[in-house]
Amino acid sequence: MPKRGHYDRATVHAVLDAGVMCHVGYVIDGQPYVTPTCHWRHGDRIYWHGSSASRMLRHLKQGVPACVTVTHLDGFVLARSGFHHSINYRSVMALGHARLVPDEAKLEALRDFVERLFSGRWDELRPPTAQEIKATTVLWMDLDEVSAKIRTGPPVDDEEDYALPVWAGVLPVSSRRGMPEPDARLAPDVALPGYLRPDGGAS
Amino acid sequence: MPKRGHYDRATVHAVLDAGVMCHVGYVIDGQPYVTPTCHWRHGDRIYWHGSSASRMLRHLKQGVPACVTVTHLDGFVLARSGFHHSINYRSVMALGHARLVPDEAKLEALRDFVERLFSGRWDELRPPTAQEIKATTVLWMDLDEVSAKIRTGPPVDDEEDYALPVWAGVLPVSSRRGMPEPDARLAPDVALPGYLRPDGGAS
Fold first, then answer.
1. Nearest to B190 among A127, A165, A175 (CB)
2. Which of A24, A54, A159, B146 is deepest in the core (most CB within 10 A)?
């Protein structure tokens, strides 16, 4: 196996920032659970949130060991033998202990989350109520024990296999935003915000 | 929170089959790990594979508790308040104990994997050697303790918020295959297989 580990901070941050959803691993009574949720990053910390009633969040806020993994599938790598088939991907795995964002910092953290995805949207929204803030748990974890794995490029076949009449190469896969679908109850004269136009916003 | 659980087998299978990558959770010395890998399904079992040297596979083949989660992000749900923002997604979580596919069944399992993605490709490939089979570990898990969660549709706002002049709706997200990129060392006169043509193959 080629070495695919990358540990520099810029690479780790880029992989995290390119993704919307992470998978959070935690253990209850010896059973591992892997829960998908949205994540965001601020500095060298990864954040995620949810209902304060969520079992995952109620468990993790106790500071037990956690693992957060973010993965992008970038393509199928088709080789001349089954054995050398692979995928192009970018992935980050972070180990640590989740920490609870205190009440007084929750609003700023949630603002980061919305603004990262849709820059300018936070100030357009009906502001959160105290009850809503209370009903939301936000966790963070330091990106201390973290690694990235990345595979790019064409297949790597056994030398004698290159002459075989087998199609080989890469079939790219990507995640794309579609056309915004306005809510049926949209108030009159509400224009599509710039961050949702096809040429605006993050990918 | 609206109820989003779906437990019927057809729904679970459809979510699994629509995806290429799963996240496998396991525990070593109390620390959870979440490793991305490709999966496939046969009947009521989920399969995944990798190098026999993989730490994840060497650990899981002992029959310890595992969790396999498959998630599709289908869209951002933009509400009039931050609190009611959500995502549209499909996810399956399966709990159980992984089992080792025995040597004599590995070839058939790997064939399933390739054929599911690229129907007709297996027989085009240079056949696996005994050494390659030996170097590959294939695991499976019964889809016994399994659940699906699915969210679809528009935002659900507080009734009094619908009148606000805030854009609301869904921004769809989807995964798409791009144009195949032939390997630079492709043998002469090798045509693009039908399963890779834009109108062929699985999504």
1. A165
2. A24
Q: What does residue B70 show for φ and ψ, rounded to 5 degrees? A: -120, 130
- Supply the ipTM of this predicted assembly: 0.94
Give the three-class secondary structure for B70. strand
Cα A82 from chain centre: 30
Q: Would the CA dihedral through B119, B122, B123, B124 be positive or negative?
A: positive
Summarize pLDDT for A49-94 with one digit per residue, the tens: 999 989 999 999 999 999 999 999 999 999 999 999 999 999 999 9
For domain A5-75+85-154, give the CATH superfamily.
Electron Transport, Fmn-binding Protein; Chain A (2.30.110.10)
Class of domain B5-177+186-196 as given by CATH: mainly beta
Q: Smallest CA–CA separation between B30 and chain A, in Å?
A: 7
A66 vs chain B: nearest CA distance in angstroms?
Answer: 6
Task: State the CB neighbour count (10 A cutoff) for residue A93.
Answer: 21
CA-CA distance, B140 to B118, in Å (whole number)?
21
Beta-carbon separation of B126 and A80 below 8 A: yes
Domain ranges across chain B: 5-177+186-196
